[in-house]
Amino acid sequence: xxxxxxxxxxxxxxxxxxxxxxxxxxxxxxxxxxxxxxxxxxxxxxxxxxxxxxxxxxxxxxxxxxxxxxxxxxxxxxxxxxxxxxxxxxxxxxxxxxxxxxxxxxxxxxxxxxxxxxxxxxxxxxxxxxxxxxxxxxxxxxxxxxxxxxxxxxxxxxxxxxxxxxxxxxxxxxxxxxxxxxxxxxxxxxxxxxxxxxxxxxxxxxxxxxxxxxxxxxxxxxxxxxxxxxxxxxxxxxxxxxxxxxxxxxxxxxxxxxxxxxxxxxxxxxxxxxxxxxxxxxxxxxxxxxxxxxxxxxxxxxxxxxxxxxxxxxxxxxxxxxxxxxxxxxxxxxxxxxxxxxxxxxxxxxxxxxxxxxxxxxxxxxxxxxxxxxxxxxxxxxxxxxxxxxxxxxxxxxxxxxxxxxxxxxxxxxxxxxxxxxxxxxxxxxxxxxxxxxxxxxxxxxxxxxxxxxxxxxxxxxxxxxxxxxxxxxxxxxxxxxxxxxxxxxxxxxxxxxxxxxxxxxxxxxxxxxxxxxxxxxxxxxxxxxxxxxxxxxxxxxxxxxxxxxxxxxxxxxxxxxxxxxxxxxxxxxxxxxxxxxxxxxxxxxxxxxxxxxxxxxxx
Amino acid sequence: xxxxxxxxxxxxxxxxxxxxxxxxxxxxxxxxxxxxxxxxxxxxxxxxxxxxxxxxxxxxxxxxxxxxxxxxxxxxxxxxxxxxxxxxxxxxxxxxxxxxxxxxxxxxxxxxxxxxxxxxxxxxxxxxxxxxxxxxxxxxxxxxxxxxxxxxxxxxxxxxxxxxxxxxxxxxxxxxxxxxxxxxxxxxxxxxxxxxxxxxxxxxxxxxxxxxxxxxxxxxxxxxxxxxxxxxxxxxxxxxxxxxxxxxxxxxxxxxxxxxxxxxxxxxxxxxxxxxxxxxxxxxxxxxxxxxxxxxxxxxxxxxxxxxxxxxxxxxxxxxxxxxxxxxxxxxxxxxxxxxxxxxxxxxxxxxxxxxxxxxxxxxxxxxxxxxxxxxxxxxxxxxxxxxxxxxxxxxxxxxxxxxxxxxxxxxxxxxxxxxxxxxxxxxxxxxxxxxxxxxxxxxxxxxxxxxxxxxxxxxxxxxxxxxxxxxxxxxxxxxxxxxxxxxxxxxxxxxxxxxxxxxxxxxxxxxxxxxxxxxxxxxxxxxxxxxxxxxxxxxxxxxxxxxxxxxxxxxxxxxxxxxxxxxxxxxxxxxxxxxxxxxxxxxxxxxxxxxxxxxxxxxxxx
Lengths: 604, 607
Description:
The complex is a heterodimer.
Chain A: H1 19-26, H2 31-64, H3 70-118, H4 121-126, H5 129-171, H6 173-180, H7 183-220, H8 222-227, H9 231-283, H10 289-303, H11 309-330, E1 352-360, E2 366-375, E3 380-384, H12 391-397, E4 406-411, E5 414-415, H13 421-426, E6 428-431, H14 442-447, H15 456-465, H16 469-474, H17 492-506, E7 510-514, H18 522-536, E8 540-544, H19 548-552, E9 556-561, E10 564-569, H20 571-576, H21 580-603
Parallel strand pairs in A: 3-8, 3-9, 6-7, 7-8
Antiparallel strand pairs in A: 1-2, 1-4, 4-5, 9-10
Helix pairs in contact in A: 1-11, 2-3, 2-5, 2-10, 3-5, 5-6, 5-10, 5-11, 6-9, 7-9, 7-11, 9-10, 15-17, 17-18
Chain B: H1 2-6, H2 17-27, H3 31-64, H4 68-117, H5 120-125, H6 128-170, H7 172-219, H8 221-226, H9 230-282, H10 288-300, H11 302-330, E1 351-359, E2 365-374, E3 379-383, H12 390-397, E4 405-410, E5 413-414, H13 420-424, E6 427-430, H14 441-446, H15 454-464, H16 467-470, H17 490-504, E7 508-512, H18 520-534, E8 538-542, H19 546-551, E9 554-559, E10 562-567, H20 569-575, H21 578-595
Parallel strand pairs in B: 3-8, 3-9, 6-7, 7-8
Antiparallel strand pairs in B: 1-2, 1-4, 4-5, 9-10
């Protein structure tokens, strides 16, 4: 299935300064359905009003006139008919609006997910993970509620008002106007109250977060708590926050417990006033008894729903804030994966030339300065230097996570920027020091990103080469063992070897690897070493080097300092020069001498 | 690790007698509140039915009988009912709402306090998130059931019953029609609700999977890009959103079908009532106002039915929550004081492990027949590979766990005869990844001795070598450390946790050295702080640094739960065994790090 079918609309085109217009455009493809939902809602509302108007006829024509017989049958049938209409259409309306809301939300989720993974790496490097996730989840949920509850809910209340008000006008103009006098007050009180509530609710929610942080700290620090025997103190601290939450909850409740009775009284007063005036008019013969009865029923449907309007309006505003938070992500430009005019047949050779390459993350703060070197196909390039000296930035340029600000990088003699990113990345394998593994089975992690069917034998073969096979077999479910929260936790070295197996299966022409194997026992270290050697065979390899051995075998060593190459050459060449490189190398010999001395000193 | 998977939660619970009594016991201390809101809701509910009856009187005795006085009088009664109802509404919202908060507070407090009693083994089995859900969503569900649930059910039942009574008063034969209709409506409503809830829960599950997918998609974006996984990821994600769509769309349209179904059925009933009632009017058996009242009663009967169905569906979930909560509260701590304990005011003295065995699960021993003796004031270094049992030894020593076999003697006394508090309050501990609590630096140091003065705190910080970096903060000792101390570097956290231990003046000091490298200067400060702590007291160090190991009076090489080698540095080097190879490897690594010309200690983390 092609990626496009998960969303048939480029949502970045729906952005509008007016958030309501944006939300409307985001519904594209569902517009008629949503309008249909509104129309069905209108029919349902009219039908309900019809029920009460039938009631009027029932009283006036049937009972008071004494026309039992055909009239009675007609009235009863139309009564049930209206009820059926109302039921059917309110279901249709609910069905249509649910389809719209869920459909539009599904598309938004799919689009957002895809959008996020296609945004440039630079965007992710600068964004907070938690913030992006909350926009993609809770803000999207808020947008969903806008479609499914709020917009349609406001529509329902307004329709009810309009339809019933028109019906009231038909019954009696004076009565109709009298019945709506109190409505502005009801709406105003409702809006005022719900905006107060939403503030109190926020406070309450914040306290909830504080409380669960406190709990979490207690649980994760359980050994400290026990070691200092601070159980009592912890209980005391927790109780304070717990009590504070109780107090805030009480405050929230107080507002609620005031609003509902107050609105009860306002609505009740309006209703009763209408009843009274209606009754007096009926008594005076200004209106019929049937009219009075229809009137009392309709009035209820006008007045009481109005007090929910405030809630919906206040919630709508949070829905709109959420929509603009989502829009901020949609606004970002994607990284074009398939733009590029050069596409070789088959794989690249792997000749890479850096020509005066400069790069900076932010203006006037270069992290790479005038980098030039040549790397022949199959060469091993070792990058040496302190943290922040530019090694990682340099390798980030190869898969075009970033493009140079100045200078040119060529691959097989062609400017890198002419290759499609997707193609380029298919030619490059990366093994990081502690690679990210996904919470799926180990098998899936090994085959992740290998775009073809892989047999189990192949996977096991790769795992054996990567010296991880035996480790995997020790897990209860072997290759099907889940990684991460719900499964096993792998050590840094084990993760690295999974990534090596993955790279072996991917079989790229160019390899980027971080050869750090910190904190593994010597045996494992030898295994990893072997796995890496196997991996590097006949590939152009860039090593971020932490050990002298990888450097010694390299075809070219680049020594970095503050974004510049300070020394460059083979091990033999560099050993002949005085400089950083020789200093590092000398240390190795010095260590062995010191070790011998140390042991000897103990032996005395 | 497989425990986590078996922790998948039961969704529905049964209301057994036992659970029921226990639920009531939660409300018992607040029975006045319960009685209060029940009375209020009963008033509201009865008033609802009564106002409809009043409307009937306005028509029959007012309009049709032509009496203005009766209209006025009835409207006045109506008005006072509205006022009473409003007052009762205030009462039940406040009482039930505050009680719900109170029950939550009680439950959280009880669980939290109980958690403090539970042993470490409980926490190693239960994921933090699992425990947090007990104090979070489960508590919410249970307290809602105990307050709003009971309230809604009461309202619904009284509402239906009073409406029925009024209908019987108005016209018994017509009322029977309605009574026949009721069970049908109730069954339909309950079935709908359960199905809606099922889909709703499915959509919640899908939603958390979607969140998980976003989390991975964002944190793993580099790998995804490097491996060009975008298309297949979207495909997988599409399956999740399809599932989500399916579940929430079903839940939504079932809800949309639910009320209309109930309404249509009740309208048919109403049609019959109107037809029969209309015919009865001509014989004077029924009044117009009576018809009006029946219309109202039947139209609004769907609300109590809907509420009953909702509470019924939620109840099953809430009972499952209650069972989990009770389960937590009922868990006995694995380690607790014995019935008879010896009072001790010190644990100073020799420490002896005698044939100590330990296992978390049967047939999977973690510590096997361990024997050793440590003299008072000695410093012991535990070395060996990860997973060999070093941490377990320390946990046994602190009596976080107790030996499954064998004995541990502190100062000649079997430590299981002592009080836990007596042992643990005399231990100072510095962990590998130091755990700090949100709050200021001062509060964190003071954790070691709650009644310490500011001077004591500063003194301890100075001894730990932490004072220098602390006073460089804008707010000094009042500086906030952030959630879990994440505003500080690892080295700084370590220094603070050392200061905390110094302040506690422990009789036994335990340290788990950090493996992660901190800069040389901080390292020196930490070493210095440790030395301070180890002066004149017995100490156990899970050691990674050579300097620490070499200083030890006794080195225990631990592997596979056994002591492989034991002795001083010199003795063990001579032996040329396991220790020798560990040592030489570590020596090379440390020097490599030390001589790393790139990462000169110039940019010190601490300074």
